[in-house]
Amino acid sequence: MAAKQPPPLMKKHSQTDLVSRLKTRKILGVGGEDDDGEVHRSKISQVLGNEIKFAVREPLGLRVWQLVSAVMFSGVAIMALAFPDQLFDAIFEEESVSSKTPIRLYGGALLSIALIMWNALYTAEKAIIRWSLLAEACYFAVQFLVTTVSLAESSRIATGAVLLMVSRALFILISIYYYYQVGRRPKKV
Question: Model-level pTM?
Answer without folding.
Answer: 0.64
